[in-house]
## 1
Amino acid sequence: MTTQHPWIALFRQMLLIRRFEEKVRELYTQDRIKGMLHLCIGQEAVAVGAMSVLRKDDYLVSTHRGHGHFIAKGADLRLMMAELFGKRTGYCKGKGGSMHIADIDMNHLGANGIVGEGLPIAAGAALAIKNIKQTDQVVVCFFGDGALNIGAFHEALNLAGLWKLPVVYICENNSYAISTHIKKACAIDQAAQRADSYAMPGVTVDGMGVLAVRDQVDAAVKRARNGGGPSFLVCQTYRFLGHGRNPDCSLYRTKEEEREWKQRCPIEVFRGRLLKDNIVSENDIGQMEGDIARDITASVEFAEQSPYPLPEDLEADIYA
Amino acid sequence: MREITYREALREAMQEEMRRDPAVFLMGEDIGRYGGVYSVTKGLLKEFGDKRVLDTPISEAVIAGAGTGAAAVGARPVIEIMYVNFMTFCMDQIVNQAAKMRYMFGGKIKVPLVIRTQGGAGTYCAAQHSESLEAWFTHVPGLKVVMPATPYDAKGLLKSSIRDDNVVIFIEHNLLYNRKGQVPQDEYLVPLGVADIKREGQDVTVITYSSMVSVSLEAADELAAAGISAEVIDLRTLRPLDMATILNSVQKTGRVVVCEPDCKTGGVGAEIVSQITERAFDDLDAPPVRVAGRDTPIPYSPALEKLAVPDKHEIVKAVNGLFNRKSGL
């Protein structure tokens, strides 16, 4: 295997996220993982393409659909799975779960259960970088198309544009906020046009193509790092599964539409490209699948064997 | 000792902390060039420049959110929300984000954010600019809530708030900005979570804060003339509450009046009275009483506004009621 080729790592990350999410889905369906969680199956290229151009010390502001972002930032699967299980060994000692997973040691400022409310936080982190820390770090902030019409979106983009903050705002446009289509929510057709109001570039990106995402985010990150200010990218992607616990999408989208998008599966399409260009062989991919399966199994074992938080943990860590 | 105003004391607190720690910065509407609508931050832009004193657009949600994000990555923002009524715009960032980040994230992150705001009735500004909404914030785990009554406390508490690694809601009172008081030249801090006995007494405990402290002290003067010795406790911090000081006093006096400017229902007084009855029922010689703001929006008309918040007569009357005697008025 020509392990040096940079595309292989991109492919492997997407595959890892897909297999992790499939396992999480299975555990969730079995009620071994509780509560509310949101899978990013179908949207892997956005997370992987974006995170691949970031430095370790760059900041991530994620969403409720954030497993992929964190895995692409280099999360330890065992600590992630333990968090989803609500175990004391998880990233947040079991107190955050899927929707609030974070790790400040890795400059991950958190998934967020409130739509759109990560955008102001990202602006603030970028402000501190620019004015106080005075480093060349960059903040990448993800959000779904559902966040496009909340006040915080506009306030945050305006402030970022006004102050030329080093932040890249990435909309993962999967067309649906639960059931509401973006066309029934956004007054304009092309969300990227919103950037014009906030003095930053607005780019519509093929969110099913990991290379397209990587290239556009790379340009935006370079711009931010060099003092050029924020960017707004709209990555067109698709949530292959239902929202949350409800697998039924029939009330709001057609099988035909689903089929069309699934034919553009970011992993399948990229796999074809890698094979065609002889960058990997079927054998290589098989080996990759084996390694990933082993890692995921180990994460589940770790999570299952880990202890739950103790009663005294309930009131710990409210204040510093 | 020198005397300075509450406003000057607050300004000195920020100035000293900004000189001490380059991570401290200010952000808010009209706080730089204009010096703040109550002139609290006057002169700070000139000294510290526009990287550390930032005039923002009217965007309270992102002011609060950017404060949260900046604090999360190691800065120490002091943001100003012009009126406590405008905190409504910030509620998601305060309640769902800043206050619970540390807890949700397993205790690894610190959010050293101070949100300065001001409120209170008495300036004929009516219902959208005069309220006292402190009870909203005392209800939220993860927040600290501070309300100073004197210049000395204002300075020492704000300095402590800026050094605190948690989210502090620091609510000033607009009627106090011109109030003068003794403030030492030398540096000092007033710790959060510690009440102050503003007047010692034996017969009744008046528990109060912010603008109601001076009103309570005037009432205590009048009660003293009538032979009742009132102890006046200034809470200074509403969350965490200094229950030890409260319970010690109640043990001594056996009688309690809580005086608060905020609406009575679900207020700070309700919490204090509950805790006293739960924890010191046997010390009580009479049922605790609340003297609180009325359960109304604050009206504009001067004839009505003054009725919406307690005055000294109400406190005197309430205390006399505890002794089952008529008001000496």
## 2
Amino acid sequence: MLTEGAAPKPLHRDVIRGLQNILGASMVLHRPEDLLLYEYDASIEKGRPGAVVFPATTEDVSRVVRLAAQHDIPVIGRGAGTGLSGGALARTGGIMIVFARMNRILELDLENQRAVVQPGVVNYELTRAVEHAGLYFAPDPSSWKSCTIGGNVAENAGGPHTLAYGVTTNHVTALEFVLPNGEICRVGSRHGDSVGYDLAGLFVGSEGTLALVTEITAKLLRKPESIKTLLAIFDRVDDASETVAEITARAITPAACEMLDGWTLRAVEDFIHAGFPLDSAAVLLIELEGLAEVVAAQVAAVEDVCREHHAREVRVARGEHERELLWKGRKNAFGALGRIAPSNYVLDGVIPRSKIPQALRYIQEIGERYNFKIGNIFHAGDGNLHPIVLFDPRDASQYQRAIEASAEIIRYCVEIGGALTGEHGVGMEKSELMPLLFSDDDFDLMRRTHDAFNPNSALNPGKMFPLNKGCGEITPRAQAAVRAVPL
Amino acid sequence: MNTTAINVAARLETVVGAARVNATSESCAKFAIDGVVPSAVARPASSAEVVEIVRFAKSEKLALIPCGHRTKLAIGMLPSRYDIALDMTALNQIAYYDPADLTLSVDAGMNLAELAEALAQQKQFLPLAVPFFEECTVGGTIASNIGSSLRPGYGSARDFLLGAEFVNGAATFTKSGGRVVKNVTGYDLHKLLIGSLGTLGAITRLNFRTFPLPEGYGHLVSTFSSVDSIVRFQAMVSKSPLAPSSFDILGPEAAQTVAEFKDDRDSPLPSWFTRGEWHVCVGFEGTETILRRYSSELVQYAQQCGASNYHLLEKSDNKSLGGALRELHNLLARSGPAATIFRINILPTFPPDVTNLRTLAQRFSLPCCVFANSSGPLYFALQPNDLDAKTIAALAQIASSVFEYAASKDGQASILFCPRELKEQVNVWGDPRSDAHLMRRVKNAFDPQNIFAPGRFVTAI
């Protein structure tokens, strides 16, 4: 009883044969047992494609898309399948293009701090390829060792360090992509500024609903001179969240400012042994970067704020090993929680930083009201909450209640001036919640923009836009959303 | 006032009331763009009134151009039609400001300098150090995407604009983005508005991330006798741990213009500049300790790269120099009857062959100047003394060479400011590129009846 669309729509054998002719038989998967793996991503959604193909070039992608268009079959792009919103799932079947073979770094221009890469390049691999020159690629989602840059571009992915450096869109200057008619286009410029509209800005984060990105020109940043990682330990969650609000209010901008509540960190510690204190109510993992003098002053200022808010202890990581261990604890936290409950639902709401304390109290209340354990491990510095609802998906009523509790939390985020998603994307997960934020007129313009590039919804159908608007279909999520819409 | 004008104004009055409409020839003339005068000026006082006016224009098939304080109307091509000037300056309030969250929502018609004052009270600011700073509006700054000298340190508007509200060509009020610092909900439509020159709709409100005002400022002005030395200096700074807030490279003539700038102290800048030489002005920020470190290391780098002279500015002089650098486009645009400024987007590394541009101007005996923002565009300004056919022909030839020069470097160029006469011969946006049809699709989605600023933008949008 997960979601709709799990049953694949088999593709006609002519289509399979056509795909095999384009790519070779070994590059086309179509047997049900082979497709199973591709009906999941890292969200709680499902959707099985009719075929999965592995193109090697932009021209391959274009030929596949043209074949799909001839047969009126949807096309879905997919990187590593680590997304958290169902963005890379075949909601209505169709041909899934997996970019695993398009994984080459095409050019490194170290002098100008640019890289030209294919979409299947793994995020971390780009940083590895340029770190000898003191450079790195800034977006760093928790899945950075497996997720692809193409996926980052589609979802406009973030990560802990986006607090200081911005999400993927701030690091992409040009794109090559394939439109649903197979046309290959280039937008943006290597410089970043281009004459005319900022089309690269529109396509980054469009969740594969406008085009299939086949090449990315990315900015590379220079590694900072000094990095200090602090672990601040609190006996009360309120103290930790007020510390975050105060750090923001004092205009100290850490490179990252992450919060783990006590319950979550105990689960993580048990698994990772990162050195998190088992008896605390919450910890903040704060990273300060820049010139040594700037960092020294910021460390002192952050320590002051933490102490004023009753931090029991503030530890500064000694050496790279300790620092890496703390981050390992943070980045593998979601995995660690998998050991506790059969499933977890990670939310991605954003709120103004000044409202973190009240939002955490509200999440606590929701957990009590719905009788769920809700953990919190999130990018506190930019107000990007990740409440994690632990539930058993085999229990239909639990699933339903998990969705409802989540919708209430997201509704609250919107009510206090926030948004539905800070970095995971809307996908199929939050499409029904979009009316919380957007009016019919807003949707009309988004739809017209969508139709300008993807007029027949041939690319990634059923994503971002609410399904229930106009077609009467009510999913469990839609029901929760409808109830959550303020009257 | 002709009969069309009377008709437009009279009908417009029935929509938003007489108080919001002005059709005197004097008022309309103020909103002229390259000599094209609108029939009426509408000054809405709310976004609902903007919707009413746009709905009227749409039903009557009239062309609208949103305007702020009209400092940059010379950017872009001549409008192919222009019936109503949509004066946005009555929408001029801060709608929401949460200093503790460093987020801001401001009406598009608010004066940028006034906004800066309000933010300064909370020790914050927007890193938009743009020309026409004292007079211009926030909306016009975004719609024109005019360059900010703080870009090396803070990025461009697309890096700190969080969302927008606007009325599109279908006469509906729409929004994109939000008011939080991190948000990927829906398409980033507000990014399309940056630099769209009013062709996608009338921006009514903009949401920004604000920044803390630095504790102190410093500037190093260094003198170089060759462009090669500057290229080396730029590379050395870029590979160092330093992160300057601004990095302005000034050719000899640009340095002269900056040197002659008079700020409110009513005297020219002190003589940090050496006549006939290239200069680099590096701006940096922070506490005393940090300023000291920047000063000593930058001086060291400049000396290693062969700077013939350098000055570290005194506290009071930082503001004057910052002001002069910020207003450079403004000063040059007003420097003569045929002043023409190219904006050239090439790779961040300053090109050693930039001297070719000066040679190009010399071939036509036209005074010129070159300046650049390290991570932003390179600017090439021509300052002919006369506006005659010969000059325009020369400018047209120069334009085609500049467009070729940019393309040869995998870049793009456009003309930011130039006389109308040149626009009649040259497309200021350069030759249409391979993405022209995609641009038109965006335009059609936002403005299906082509009522917003028709003809002003790329590919005759």
## 3
Amino acid sequence: MAAYPMRRERLDTALLLLPASLFLLVWFVAPLSRLLSLAFVSDNGVFDNFTVLLSSSVYLQVLGNTLMLAALVTVITLLLAWPVAYVLTRLKGPLFVLTLYGVLFPLWISVLVRTFSWMLLLERGGPVNRLLMAAGIVDHPLALLFNETGVLIGMVHVLLPYAILPLYSAMNRIDTRLLMASDGLGAGVMDTFRRVYLPLCLPGLFGGGTFVLLLSLGFFITPALLGGANSMTLSMLISSFVTDRLAWSLAAAGSMVLLVIVLLLLGLTMRLLPMEKGMFAK
Amino acid sequence: MSGQTRQQRKSERQLSGTPIAWRWAAQVGANLVLAFLVLPILAVIPTSFNQASFISLPPTSWSLRWYGNFFADPEWRSSLWVSLQVAVMATAAALALGLPAALGLQRAGALLRPILTGLFLAPMIVPVIISAVAIYRTALDVGLNGTRIGMALSHAALALPFVVINIGVSLRHVDRRWQQAAAGLGAGSWTVFRSITLPNIIPGLVGGGVFAFITSFDEVVVAVFMAGYGAKTLPVKIWESIRLEFTPVVAVAASFMILLAALLFALARLIDARRRQVAGKAAASITTETITDQGVPA
Amino acid sequence: MTGNGLPLRFRGATKHYGTQIALHPIDLDVEAGEFLTLLGPSGSGKTTLLNLIAGYLAPSAGQLFIGDREVTNLPARQRNIGMVFQNYALFPHMTVAENVGYGLAVRRRPKEEIKRRVDAALAMVELAGYGDRAIQQLSGGQQQRVALARALVIEPDVLLMDEPLGALDRQLRRNVQLELRRRHEERRRTTLYVTHDQEEALILSDRVAVMRAGRIEQIGPVTELYRNPVNSFVASFIGESNLLPARLIAQDGIQMRIEVAALRHTLTLPVTAAPMKMGLADMPLQLLLRPEHLVLDDAGPLAARVEEAVYLGELTALRLRLESGADLWLRRLTDRPITRGMELRVNWQPEHVRLVPQS
């Protein structure tokens, strides 16, 4: 067996992988490293930027805000995702396709446009408030914009499909014969749900929840447009460091913090859950 | 339904399983959530037809005034043009880099593959604000900020993961044995690629290209930093206009973006249908593929 | 695990989907403690019938009684049935013990009782000590036994099995079949078994119901189906068969004369060789000669040439070409070597010849 053909194949493979790797190294990895290295640049010592960030009550509040918001958004989207995912498993034919497209299409629209649409809907004189008043639910327009509520609504809207799809995928994989078996063994509906269906949905719930959580942590556009003065998120902070103050080191430190949180969460998830084959398929 | 006995009607329903009430409640809940998902997007389009200078929904009176305004304004026109140019460049780059990368990944050894997969997917995992700030910093250092090339390169980096994933999925359906048979019959590796592999990954290529295009066109965060004065894309102009001058022309721009998204979405679904024909897969597996199709919002 | 289980009566079981009929009205009676197999090709309706009895499908018409209780409109969980599925349907997120004890847990039995009964059930299927294992760690044969234990531990009135051995390899399958039969003879629980494998049906059953296209073609003890099939479908489904077109020439109360073109022969058969006495002249008929009932006989009436000789170890199967051009299979104990091209003479054992309607 000649070693020559093998070497030739390895060379071919390397050549194939080279352009994209080089490109990403130059235009993604290098910039990222450069930025993160700036986090350690300061007049007052290597970790000064971090100290500034993590000891300031203002910045800590931003961090806390971001985490709280992300957690809240995750819980709400998972709750809302549930009926849609379930219905998707039961539909067939054109109704199924229509519903699936209803979930997929919003993902193709820019987050800016989707956020903008909520600005139109949630303002004081806007359709939502008018509907609520007309239905008699409230007697004066609610402040739904430029506060936490608006941000919440906007983010849930943008992130819902990311919760629905993994949950649907997991639910779809549940063998109906398991439910039939549970039924035949005498289990009532609640028992079958609690003991068989729910545990088998957990991977999907977990996957979708993590996905949504990770995305919400980095959200910028939606909180920026829909939020008020006191609902700043970490990404808005980073952006403001750069555009308003040219404080690159602080921006870098903030980025580092965000990245670490994201990677920690990601690592935790991958440990607790074998990644769905589709997610990071080649 | 007449003529059926009560028992016959009952037999049409399943005897065991989830109670009807639950299923009905789930359907109602799902419809509400779906409405929540889809309708707000449609709020944009009526707003663009408003007669007056302020935003109102529904419009006080209907007119095409702001559409005229959009096309008359050189800044809006140029931002549309810039967006198109950047998207085309970014798509071309992403495809040119992504195709060999996907091919190489498939052949890579067990050691290299996870590392490279991590590299190729990194732009998808890193929060976009961080990517934006990092790339902007480097662009400043090399003078590529505010240029369309710089913008296109940045978008190419963001779109690359989706191209690689899309082509990768298509590649998995190319049976090794076809390639081996071709090689056995005397075809060289380029011929094998051209005649066997390539025709079968067209859906992945085109699908990846379509998604790369919309990713670039929709992209906001990186664009806001990289735009400068020379590369203002449509989303950047919208972003500025929302905060500076809030007239219905913004809704016009947003409507165009929705229209483009709808067209490309339809195209992608057609490609999917073709791909299913080619691969002969069952409908349920769409989900797996489409999860990897979609990506992080900008 | 004691008791006989209950008798089962299904009157007029029917199932259709819109205009498509999956089951024509069927009456089925299963005695307490009986092992009845529903045997047939795919699409015959055997699984549909099983699902109706289990309660996973509602019948379009008909009434089902388990013991004295009418269960027609009861959901599966209230019928006290034990079901073993083709792919076992073991709960992947539970251990072996949790799987087996599931039926007891949802019946809210006390923990000690559950543990006791689960241990007994596992011992009975020879998986004692496996309780804490994950089911993914078990082999196919072991999973099959867990599925069985899970169905039996709740002491069902009827045990239902839907091709449960399909996933096992041949040797294991044979062992499990014999084990199931042995267990059944010990416990005598009313059992309804679905399969397409006639050998399996032969080994396991007290009675077999051969099904085709939503009807029961014939039901009875296996020996009866073998010896006196009611039509050519049953004849070919149970055991090996040679079926040759036959024409009825004459018939009285005792005998029938039939002409069989392929044999170039006219036979006289007692009327008991056919499943019925009336109406034979009006239907296409076939002569049934089972390969094991043909003999090589130098003085025999048929001249034949060996087209194929298949060595099966103890037996040899021969495909013989008759003068008429028709082929017959013959099975005999292997003694002298027989090869292609040999010219032989063949006879049949007259007491085993049957006349069956073509179906």
## 4
Amino acid sequence: MTPVMTPSEEAPTRLLYREVMTGSGSARYEANAPFKVELVRLPKSAPRGIRVSLELGMEDAGVWAHIVELDVAAEGENAADAFRAVLAAAREWLSYVRDEHPELAPELGDQERYVPLLDAPVFSWFKSFRFAE
Amino acid sequence: MLGRNGFAIARSRDHELWIKRDDDNRVTNRVPVSHGNAEIRTRGLFARMLKQAGKTEDHFFEVLRRRA
């Protein structure tokens, strides 16, 4: 019977070290170590044509936020709260449009085109931010 | 105020969504409202909600007066 050599019994390969200079001194790494490959799936960014604009307004009583193209607004104690609230309001509106396909009067415009924002990461939703005067 | 002006709740998850339909069942107005947002604190949000509802500030206070 022919002996079978398993990977752990293979002759060890000679380790090759390389050295690089970094901001905090030199670092040594195994040059012939196998690469570790990890697959990370990133959601697709929002298409450019449907990115929206955010307006923020600061008042003594709090901060309001308004997504212009969706005409959705909300408020919070600070800018972060207002931003979270207006995102939640926009998601509620867009998911209603996606799920119910309501017939919209012309003055509400073509809101269905913004529905793909629901599947896009928030960082890609916006084309502009501005503070209202 | 929304309920007294022909609006009905369409969604009530993260936010409430109030909508108003015309005779042809088309959505003419919609107003997203935060849960527990009984008191609107900023003028900016108040102005936008009135615009979404298709109402004026005078109408809003008139409704409040009638309610009182």
